[in-house]
Every structure is written in structure tokens, then in C-alpha cells.
Amino acid sequence: MPYIFIPMKKRYLLLMAILSGVLLSLSWPAHGFPFLLFIALVPLLYIEDFIAKNKHNFIKASVFFYSYLTFFIWNLLTTYWIYYSTGFGAAMAVVVNSLFMAVVFHLYHLVRRTIFKSKGAYNVLIAFWICFEYLHLSWDLSWPWLNLGNGFANYPMFVQWYSITGVFGGDIWILAANILVYKLLLNTFGMFRSKKNALILAAGLGLWLLIPSTISIITYYTYHETEDPYTCVVVQPNVDPFNEKFSSMSEDMQLEKMLRLARQKVDEQTDYLIFPETALPNGVVEDEINENAHVDSLKALIQKYPKLKIVIGVSSYIYYKPHQKLSVTARYVKEGDYWYDVCNTAMYLTADAPPVMYHKSKLVPGVEMMPFPRLLKPLQKYAIDLGGMAGTNATQETRTVFGTQEYKAKIAPVICYESIYGGFLTGYMRNGATLIFIITNDGWWENTPGYRQHFQYARLRAIENRRSIARSANTGISGFINQRGDVLMQTEYWTPDVRKMTINANSHITFYARFGDYLGNIAMIFTIALLLLQITIIFLNKRRKIITARKKS
Predict the structure, then answer these.
(1) CATH number at residue 282
(2) Do 148 and 240 belong to one domain?
């Protein structure tokens, strides 16, 4: 029996759209209450239903406009801090990401009404949303900061099963809960109430929320790390990225500051010393790395403590020889008639092997890369400059793991923005990584939720891969996270600091690490099938109308 909706003025629909946006925002890290996510989309689901059943009173794009308002509020209130690094980037992130989300919700509205004729099929929304987030991980305008499953980053006790599903499992949990809540409200307060259906839905909702939570809590308290200890020191030099790192403070001074902090904690028992992203900001030429004076200073510390291994962020340059094949990101210098690449690099130094480089491969759009470089390379000079790394940087296809066959521990060197890509990090585990080191520079956003969110998202990566994490951030937050996602130790923001802790390595490959974002692949297949069916139905309907019109004429 169809539900009959109470007449509602359009301004009330606006208030409901605003309510959804506010609930999403209140649920979000750094200090949000994530269980609000289970009801945050209910007002928006009502709007979609109301418009569909009263479509003669609304224009065709009404669902898009109301949902855009919801997602704009969510994006604005949770990621406004981008403004502190780039006003244009903040505007683009908020406006464009809200647009993508609204398009997805509107497509759900169209497909559900065309194919399923308003008879349930809420699973369409789940498939479309996960497909959107999955694709949003992989293209040049990627911005997965607000993937729904990230909302539980500060509550790892409830999402231990991310080691099986990744954050897309959280998407399913959240979206299905909203759908169940909405259907329960319809059967409880709708004009055609069904006590039986309401009881069934209430029981189903309770089980849907309780079973994953219970499994997760049990897993949390019964999970024990295998003893495989390594002592790590993380350095937080607190060099102002705007006024010091790339301008007034020399690289010599910065390195001396970091080494002075490191010497407070490093000793004969230290396995790893970790410095932040672009700790050496002025650049090293990779072919001349062994002649670099700053690298020599780091090696001198290793000579004093031969067991020590150093992971440090550097800006590095790759120069091309004549007739050597150029990358799509290569830059030309007319005055010297040569080509070169710029890389945001993690460098690995040991006592008995040449330096090893990993080039950051998930780049920040508009800052470290010009989207679609083959098409837009002429616009590269307009890229946002955040301290000397402007333009499109070079990347690499493989996930380099630091370590040798002789040394049991293997390191996943994760640079800044890369740490929000769960599926991306699983490539390190499949290549043998047993520990995760995150190096970053989060000082661009000042004292806002941005750096706290970034730190908290790392907790999800620990759960997904069951890997301990050591994190070195230039201005904070630096610290250590265990394999359950617990924060073991952390620094204060915008304070020079150095911390030392022993963490356990783990060689076990989780289900998620082995298969990556398989839920995204499933959702994409389902979405493509539904969109093809939608196009087919539209085509057949138009053809039927043409034939009918011809018969009448």
C-alpha cells in the first residue's frame, strides 16, 4: 500500500535538507559523534520520497537542488579549513565535491523511480554511493576525505571489521541503517501505519546496529599483537611551512634542528628514526645523492648507531639525459635546454646499502598535480604553490617497501595525503610491508580540524591492515598507533617534539589487504548494470511514444 505524505511546504523541505547537512557535520571527526550518521540521511530520504510522490509540484531537478544543499553544508562545515592553505582550493573542494554527491543522489532518484517504480529498491543508493566513492579514489580530481566510512575514525572499537571490508563496509552499515530508520518511521507515523512491519523493521534495525558493533568490540578486546618489537623515534621539528620551511630558514638550520631533537632519544637500541615530509625541502638530485652534504650528516648519525635506519622526506629531482624517454610530468628549462621531474620523496638510509627512494604517488590536486596532465599541461604554471613543490610532480606505479632480505621488518613509506587511501595502502602490504610509517606536513591548515582528521584517519589504516603506525608530522600530530587503531602516544600541535616507542611489526595479510576495495568493484558492476538498464528503458519509452504518435497521425 503506498504511503501518503502529509502536505509540506517547500520551506520545510529546505529545513530538512539543512538538517541532514548539519547531522552529517555533527557526526564527523575530529570531535563529532559518528552514531549520528545512522540517521543523518533520513531527512534527505524523506525529501526524495516526497518529491517523487508530488512530482507535479516540483521541477525535475528538485532532488538535485535539495541534496546539493545538504552536501554543501556537510562539505563546508567539515573541510572549510582548506581555506587556510588555499582559498581557491577550498572553494573548489566544497563546491565541486558537493556537486558530485548531489549528482549521485539524483541519479539514485531517477533510477529508482524509472526501473523500480517507487517500490523500495533503496539498495540502489548503497550501490551508487559506494561506486561514487570508489571512483573518486582513482581519478585526478580525487578527494575522498568525506567517504562515509571515515566517520568512525575516532571510534576504532566499533569498526574492527574494517580489516575485512575497509571503509566501504562502513558505508554499507551507515546507508542501510538510514534506510531502515526511514522505513521504520514510515511504518510508525505514516498515514497507513503497519504495527507488524514496524516491529519487524525495529528488530532488523537493532540487529543491524548491534551485530557489527558486538563483533567489533569482541574483536577489539581479544586481538593480541604478535611480539615483533622495533624501537622507533619520530621527530616533529615544527618548522613553519609558510614563513620558514621554504623561505627564511635555511636547510642547514632545519636539519640541525631535527638532528638536535633526534639525539635526545636515539640510542644503540633504536631501529628507526623518522623525519617528516619534505624535511629536506630544497631538493636533492637523485643521481648525485651520495655527494649531498645533508645526506652525509644523516649517515654520520647512522655510523654512530649502526643499527639505526632513517626514513626522511625530501624534495628530489630526476634529470633526463638527451634522447631519454620523458615522463608526462617532465618539466622543460629553456635556458639550459634540459628536462627534469620533481618528486615528493621518502628516502631510506641504512649503514650498509645505497639510499632507496619512494616517490609520492597520490598527489593533492591543484597543489602537487595539475589534473589530467596530458590535456592540461600548458596550465601547469598556474598550480597552487604551497612551498616550492608547485606543478605536477612525478609519481611511480609500484608501492616501494623499505627493507632488505636480511632485516625482518619492512616499511610502508606513506607520504601525507596518501594515508587517506585505504585501498592504495594495501599494495604495500602485498609487497611485504610489516610496519607503516606516515610522514606528513599538516601545518598548512593552522589550528583547525584538518590536521586532527588527518591523524585520526590513520587509525583506520592500522585496523584495515593490522599494522602498527609511526607518524612524523612537521607541526603535528606525530605519534604511534597500534594494530587495533589505538593511539599509543601523540604530540601536541605546533610544538617541537620528539617521541620514542617500541611497536610491533606484523606480516599477516588481512582479508582487506589481500583483496583491496573489492566492495567498490562489486558496487561499480551493479551501478553500470542499472545505468545501462535506465538508458534502455528511456530509449524504449521514447520509441514507444514515437510509434504511438505515428499511429494517431
Answers:
(1) 3.60.110.10
(2) no
Q: What is the pLDDT of residues 92-113, one digit of tens each?
A: 899 999 999 999 999 999 998 8
Secondary structure (H, E, C), 290-326: HHCHHHHHHHHHHHHCCCCEEEEEEEEEEECCCCCCC
286 with 173, same domain: the answer is no
Residue 164 contacts residue 474 (beta carbons within 8 Å): no
Q: Among candidates 167, 175, 176, 124, which has minimal Cα distance to 146?
A: 167
Whether 1 maps to a domain, the answer reads no
Cβ 337 vs Cβ 331: under 8 Å: no
CA atoms within 13 A on the CB side of 435: 28
Residues 408, 479, single domain; the answer is: yes
Residues in the chain, overall count: 553
CA dihedral of residues 79, 107, 140, 370 (deg, nearest 10): -80
Q: What are phi and psi of 401, to 5 degrees?
A: -110, 130
514 — phi, psi (to 5°)? -75, -40
**Are 151 and 294 members of one domain?**
no
Residues 337 and 462 in one domain: yes
CB 348 within 8 A of CB 355: yes
Whether 553 is covered by a domain: the verdict is no
pTM of the model: 0.92
The answer to whether residues 264 and 219 belong to one domain is no
Residue 473, all three cell numbers? 608530522
Query: Which structural domain range is residue 186 located in?
Result: 10-223+518-544
| Residues with Cβ within 8 Å of residue 203, at least 6 apart in sequence | none
Note the pLDDT tens digit of each residue in 517-536: 999 999 999 999 988 988 89
Q: What is the C-alpha separation between 431 and 458, in angstroms, rounded?
A: 20
